[in-house]
Structure formats: C-alpha cells, structure tokens
Design a protein that fits this description.
- There is one protein chain.
- The chain is α/β, with parallel strands linked by helices.
- It folds into two domains: 10-193 and 229-277, 3-Layer(aba) Sandwich (Rossmann fold), CATH 3.40.50.720; 196-227.
- It has helices spanning 19-30, 42-53, 72-85, 111-139, 160-180, 198-206, 208-211, 213-225, 231-241, 267-271; strands at 10-14, 34-39, 62-66, 92-95, 142-147, 185-191, 252-254.
- Strands 3-2-1-4-5-6-7 form a seven-stranded parallel sheet, with helices on both faces.
- Helix 4 (111-139) links the parallel strand 4 and strand 5 (142-147).
- Helix 1 (19-30) crosses helix 9 (231-241), helix 3 (72-85) packs parallel to helix 4 and helix 4 runs parallel beside helix 5.
- The longest helix has 29 residues, at 111-139.
- The protein starts with 9 loop residues before the first strand and ends in a 22-residue tail after the last helix.
C-alpha cells in the first residue's frame, strides 16, 4: 500500500468518532480518500472531525454527519450528505458502528437492550448498505467492508445479542457479495481481533459476575498486554478498499491470522472456493465418520 492507493476515492465510515472507526478515517484520508464520518454523539463527532481536518490535503473533502445507523431516516440523510459532498459518488462503505449490548444471562438482561443491539449492529449495517448500493451500481464499482466480531465464528455466552448480530452481519455480507458480484461491488467482512477500545472498558466495568469469570480474566490479560494493534485491521481495511483487492468478495478475513497480502495472487482460486467464510462443520470434517449419511 502507498499513500495514494485511495486517491480520488470517496468513503463513508460509520462509528468514526472514536476507537477503530477514527483510526480508519485517518488512514483513509492519509491514503488519499475523501471521507464522510458519522456517529451518534454530536460532540465526539465534532471533536473527531477537528482532529482529522488537519490531515486533509487539497482536493480532499471531510464530511461529519451526526446520526444513528439504526434509524433509516438518519441513514438516508447521512448518505445524501456524503453524495452531495462527493459529487454523487460513493466508492467505499465501512460498516464499523456497533455495540456490545447487554452482558449477562439471556433470560435476565433487559430485553430492550437486546433488541437495540440487533438494531444497531444488524439493521444499521443493512440500512447503510441498502442506501449506498444504488450509488455504487451507477458507477459499476464499489467496496463494502463489514466489521465482524468474535460472535460471528464462536459462541459468546452472556453476550448473546452481540454474537447473534455479528453472525448475522457476516451472513448478510457474503450473501450481498453474491448479489453484487456482476456489478463489480466487493463485499467482505473483517475480524479485527481483540482491540483495546471502549468494548474492553465495558467488559471490565461489567465485572465477572456479568461477563463470566473466564471472559473477564481474558479481558484483563488483553488490557495488560495491549491488545491487537489498530494497524492490523486498518491495514486490512485499506487493502479491501483499494483496487488491489478487486474481485475478492464474500470473505471473512482475520486481520491477525490470515495472510491476506497474498490473496491477490490467488484471486481466481479464492473466487471458486468457500475458504475464508463461515460454513457448517460436519462430523467427517472432525474425524467422526459415524455422523454423516
């Protein structure tokens, strides 16, 4: 990647007022893109925009639009603001906005919080994709990048709303990828890894009685060791937003464990394979010949 890989491209990044979203926005700007950042907290969004403004070069634009991705009206306004600022073009969408939601036994956590988690993590991602896809179809090109989470690939007891929503957005993303393949719009998901963000702060604040002793101890270790560096998922997102990844679509890629830098050399093989995707494991896959007909 060079600092001009996204030159002339336009991007919307949700949940960009702090944490990974803010890091992504800065990196996209540094690599030449014009960026629209959005988040629910107006004060934090204004602070983020002020932080990013100094990195804007001549010819680039920075737009900050406050809104809730779980509200279809807010999403329409955000996307329209970006389209107006970027002369109708939206090349890249990064669905980063998300919440952990309620922590604790499913039958005890507030139901309203459980539903709200689905609305933000799943509906928010779908609303944003639905709003930008028509712009990308007109250009016959686009990149949609979905942030996944641990819940997409493994059970997360006491975080069931989060786990269910993240599994859902990954299946939504790889299904959308097939819909949009002929439009040259690539849709991929990123497993960012255990980052030291507000999510970690929430877990430590909730305590072992809510998140479970094992998860709490693992979170303490993550805090003390520093977690996955932001540069790992940021580098992967830059790759997936660039022309270097054209034709790589419908994949769930780990920023930490997958050798994604080599993927362009194996583009055709990847397009014919279900590698780097979520699939059902049957008995014979685990040496249990008695379980399959």
């Amino acid at each position: 990647m060079t600092n001009s890989d996204l030159l002339g491209r336009t991007a919307i990044i949700t949940g960009a007022s702090q944490g990974l979203g803010l890091e992504l926005a800065g990196a996209f700007i540094d690599h030449g893109a014009s960026v629209c950042i959005c988040a629910r907290d107006a004060a934090m969004l204004e602070q983020a925009a002020s932080h990013l403004q100094g990195r804007i070069a001549p010819g680039q634009r920075l737009v900050a639009e406050c809104g809730d991705v779980a509200k279809e009206g807010d999403v329409a306004r955000i996307v329209q603001a970006a389209a107006d600022a970027f002369s109708g073009r939206i090349d890249i969408l990064v669905n980063n906005a998300g919440v952990y939601g309620p922590k604790g036994p499913t039958d005890e956590v507030p139901w309203e919080e459980w539903i709200r988690t689905i609305e933000i993590n799943l509906f928010g991602s779908v609303f944003m994709a639905r709003a930008v896809v028509p712009h990308m179809k007109r250009s016959r090109y686009g990149k949609i990048i979905q942030l996944s989470g641990g819940g997409a690939t493994q059970p997360m007891p006491r975080f069931t709303a989060y786990a269910a929503s993240k599994a859902a957005v990954v299946r939504f993303a790889d299904s959308l990828a097939e819909e949009l393949r002929d439009d040259h719009i690539d849709v991929n998901s990123i497993a960012a890894g255990a980052l030291n963000t507000r999510f970690l702060d929430e877990v430590l604040e909730a305590g072992p009685e809510n998140v479970g002793e094992t998860f709490y101890k693992r979170s303490l270790e993550q805090r003390d060791k520093g977690g996955v560096p932001f540069e790992k998922p940021v580098s992967l997102a830059l790759f997936l937003a660039s022309q270097a990844s054209d034709g790589i679509t419908g994949k769930l890629i780990s920023a930490l464990w997958d050798n994604w830098e080599e993927f362009p050399k194996h583009r055709e093989e990847l397009s014919r394979s279900d590698a780097y995707s979520v699939r059902r494991i049957v008995g014979k896959d685990r040496g249990m010949p008695w379980g399959d007909k």
